[in-house]
């Protein structure tokens, strides 16, 4: 309480500053002089009384529920974007691929040494998976120095252990040894040469697959990718060791192949199902692969027309 010395009458107010709790007046004598001792008590708590009746609880409630509603709307929009964004991309010419983790899928590509048309198609497939399929591709053409350092057998063994999937690329038609292995030259876009290691790696991978034939879990790591459409309804010319492996036919099963490569990396957590980013590739990105497979199909058809008469002659004899 603050006290002041006032030489005049105190200011008069009709509203007391606080409620009077007690008032006493006593006559006392001090040094022969009679004086009045006036004492009073006030309720100090009444000096600062908050008026809770003036608080607008309605405005506070509206602000809280408005913020919660805005947060729910933003969350719903994000979930809808994650669910329907890929469909919108599909309408713009994109193909939806499976969701994937942040780390690319390690893939090993092994193929037989056939011809330049087949070689171009294999390179196009490896480049597509590397650039647009969220994969880390290991192929002999890109690691010839490493193969020369380690040797084909050791390199193949290490890459097979490191890869999540081993793609064994095969043509739809087996080219006989008497058939010339060549394709029309392309002077504008020279094709890649066939590495010498390809002649060794393919027999080695066949032996490796045969070694895992009795273990379905180990055999599931090896997939067969056939380039080109089948020429007839008969069983494809596929090595006996590969007939128990899961098979894909390009270009028909390209999207299925990409989905399958990423399917085993997905888990069942709801947060990942909602917030995991998706992958989509444009049709233009697969144009080079599609063109290479189309040229290979034309080359295979010409071989098929040349081989069929020879087979009929052998059968007649």
From TrEMBL:
Q: How does it sit in the membrane?
A: Single-pass type I membrane protein
Q: Name one GO molecular function term.
A: interleukin-17 receptor activity
Residue ranges of the TM segments: 57-81
Q: Print the keywords alphabetically.
A: Glycoprotein, Membrane, Receptor, Signal, Transmembrane, Transmembrane helix
The record's GO CC annotations read: membrane
Q: Where in the cell is it found?
A: Membrane
Q: Does the keyword Transmembrane helix apply?
A: yes
SEFIR domain residues: 104-259
> InterPro entries recorded for this chain?
IL-17_rcpt-like (IPR039465), SEFIR_dom (IPR013568)
Q: Could you tell me which Pfam families the record lists for this protein?
A: SEFIR (PF08357)
Task: Say yes or no: keyword Cell division present.
Answer: no
Main localization (coarse): membrane
Tell me the protein's name: Interleckin-17RB
The taxonomy runs:
Eukaryota, Metazoa, Chordata, Craniata, Vertebrata
């Amino acid at each position: 309480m603050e006290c002041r010395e006032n030489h005049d009458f105190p200011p008069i107010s009709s509203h007391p500053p606080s409620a009077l709790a007690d008032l006493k007046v006593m006559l006392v004598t001090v040094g022969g002089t009679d004086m009045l001792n006036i004492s009073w008590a006030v309720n100090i708590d009444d000096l600062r009384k908050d008026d809770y009746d003036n608080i607008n609880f309605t405005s506070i409630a509206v602000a809280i529920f408005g913020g919660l509603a805005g947060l729910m709307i933003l969350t719903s929009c994000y979930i809808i974007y994650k669910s329907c964004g890929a469909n919108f991309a599909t309408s713009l010419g994109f193909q939806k691929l499976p969701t994937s983790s942040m780390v690319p899928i390690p893939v090993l590509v092994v193929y037989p040494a056939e011809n330049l048309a087949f070689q171009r198609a294999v390179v196009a497939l490896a480049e597509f998976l590397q650039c647009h399929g969220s994969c880390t591709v290991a192929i002999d053409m890109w690691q010839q120095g490493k193969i020369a350092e380690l040797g084909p057998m050791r390199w193949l063994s290490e890459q097979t252990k490191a890869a999540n999937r081993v793609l064994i690329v095969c043509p739809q038609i087996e080219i006989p040894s008497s058939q010339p292995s060549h394709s029309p030259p392309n002077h504008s876009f020279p094709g890649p040469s066939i590495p010498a290691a390809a002649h060794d790696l393919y027999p080695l991978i066949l032996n490796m697959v045969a070694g895992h034939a009795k273990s379905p879990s180990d055999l599931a790591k090896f997939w067969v990718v056939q380039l080109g459409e089948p020429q007839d309804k008969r069983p494809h010319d596929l090595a006996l060791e590969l007939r128990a492996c899961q098979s894909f036919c390009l270009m028909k099963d390209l999207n299925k192949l990409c989905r399958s490569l990423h399917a085993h990396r997905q888990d069942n957590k709801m947060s990942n199902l909602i917030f995991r980013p998706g992958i989509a590739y444009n049709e233009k990105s697969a144009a080079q692969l599609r063109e290479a497979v189309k040229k290979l199909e034309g080359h295979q058809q010409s071989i098929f027309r040349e081989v069929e008469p020879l087979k009929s002659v052998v059968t007649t004899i």
